[in-house]
Amino acid sequence: xxxxxxxxxxxxxxxxxxxxxxxxxxxxxxxxxxxxxxxxxxxxxxxxxxxxxxxxxxxxxxxxxxxxxxxxxxxxxxxxxxxxxxxxxxxxxxxxxxxxxxxxxxxxxxxxxxxxxxxxxxxxxxxxxxxxxxxxxxxxxxxxxxxxxxxxxxxxxxxxxxxxxxxxxxxxxxxxxxxxxxxxxxxxxxxxxxxxxxxxxxxxxxxxxxxxxxxxxxxxxxxxxxxxxxxxxxxxxxxxxxxxxxxxxxxxxxxxxxxxxxxxxxxxxxxxxxxxxxxxxxxxxxxxxxxxxxxxxxxxxxxxxxxxxxxxxxxxxxxxxxxxxxxxxxxxxxxxxxxxxxxxxxxxxxxxxxxxxxxxxxxxxxxxxxxxxxxxxxxxxxxxxxxxxxxxxxxxxxxxxxxxxxxxxxxxxxxxxxxxxxxxxxxxxxxxxxxxxxxxxxxxxxxxxxxxxxxxxxxxxxxxxxxxxxxxxxxxxxxxxxxxxxxxxxxxxxxxxxxxxxxxxxxxxxxxxxxxxxxxxxxxxxxxxxxxxxxxxxxxxxxxxxxxxxxxxxxxxxxxxxxxxxxxxxxxxxxxxxxxxxxxxxxxxxxxxxxxxxxxxxxxxxxxxxxxxxxxxxxxxxxxxxxxxxxxxxxxxxxxxxxxxxxxxxxxxxxxxxxxxxxxxxxxxxxxxxxxxxxxxxx
Length: 683
What we know:
With 683 residues, the chain is mostly helical. The chain has helices at 2-11, 23-28, 42-47, 54-69, 76-80, 83-88, 100-106, 131-142, 178-196, 205-216, 226-231, 236-249, 253-260, 267-282, 291-300, 317-328, 334-337, 343-366, 391-394, 401-407, 410-428, 431-436, 440-456, 458-461, 473-500, 503-511, 520-557, 569-581, 587-597, 603-619, 629-632, 634-645, 656-672.
């Protein structure tokens, strides 16, 4: 009999393997291996993660509930529906759940926004859920206390306790209410349109507000078909991103209390950035090409930390996604763009293309990377949805931010500068350039291009020498950003020459004695030309850094950098770093600007501390200058040149240090004139 049972067991299918993976392994889709006698799996032990099984518990609970519902009712069904029976046993009634009505109305079992959402990443809403229920549940997820949604961010101090709203201050307990969450979200949306939209005009404010109102309305309009109504609802990742932007700059009492308890930075705002990315990833924003996904990706990129060394910071990932989507949609083709009939959609896509194109070029120059786009990757015209008529000339205040930028010529000037930045990145950020130095003809070409741009565009889009006219907020910050973007290119070029040197000089230093037999006159003439260009580069870089420091001081005194979505951040940081290395006292403007930036970007405070440290070292005589020492430190450069070449016929003007100082003082006076004009700025 036992043999018969054994043979029968061989013919049966293998038992179904139970899904016993922990939450950490499940989130990373890796195999969960737990040895007998251990409380944690091998992955959680090696990473020191909490080995939790909330998903498994929720699945088991759901199976038990569904299994109980499938049991034969018999006579017990009458008892269960009897009012007296239901009231006789207090244990039979489950505790009240504030989200139960929403979940039941949606036909789902707590997709997110409940106590399960505190320990699980973002889950896609149930397809049967109504748009109103899905939006309310999304807000519940965004504003729920931060739990170990990502084991990598789980700290030992939070182990063994459930997250509470009190972590964000006493007022945060109001977030338990659906009505307060909706009111809070609407407030953050308005902050986005008042502060961020003027710098990143990717959305239509009226359209966004109407769609949000429709998403929160319990009685959708019956005049349109069901499919048309669905198309009007907001993308959940777009709403999450806009709310995260608003939290960075909002003065809501809840966020003010949170900042006071965390040393000036909002923990809630930082968590909303992480959850906006979680929603975008769950909604496959980075994988599927669509108009909404392009806009969401472009808005997420500057929302993050601007420190390239931050694991959760600026890596250009979302910018790359936006460019890939735009190319997939063929927005770079004029023939495709002309087929878009809706003016609003066409304007959004054209503006998104130019924003991605400019950001790619500047990002490559700022962070020493090759650009993704080239000059021949697109043939569409400069941004304009409709031609701006003469009537708009007198009514410029009635134009949208997009139209004002085009009317003032910012797009054409920015694109011309972006092409220069793209060329710089291709020539400077090469392995051969890093090892051999920058070719002298390349250096001369970049200097010439920057001079041409200054003569053609800077008088129209830069900051004027005086502020007689009262500018609005958009005009003021746009002019400062355009002005700073140009001048920081000189600082970038200075840093590149200081780090890599000029190839001809490096070759002469490496060959040394072998070149002493060459013609002294030709070698001396070439080296004099190189030193002349380096003098020019020092003068322009110092002038640019002082000018940016002056603009930063003006914006800081008006509190504008507290409201800036990182547009001036890199210019302030790079220029301040150069001034700190040279021991210039004007670095205080940049330090103050970074401290004000730390209100919304936490890493800016650390950058201000580091900048002040470098400045103190420079005052102590520890100059951080390499290949540009021959012009920054003339006496030291002369000694190095003599030691390198022996009795070289090349001479360095000993009075150049004085002329440099005089030029610097003149530039300092020019830059300081902005500090006396701060009162002419108007919001």
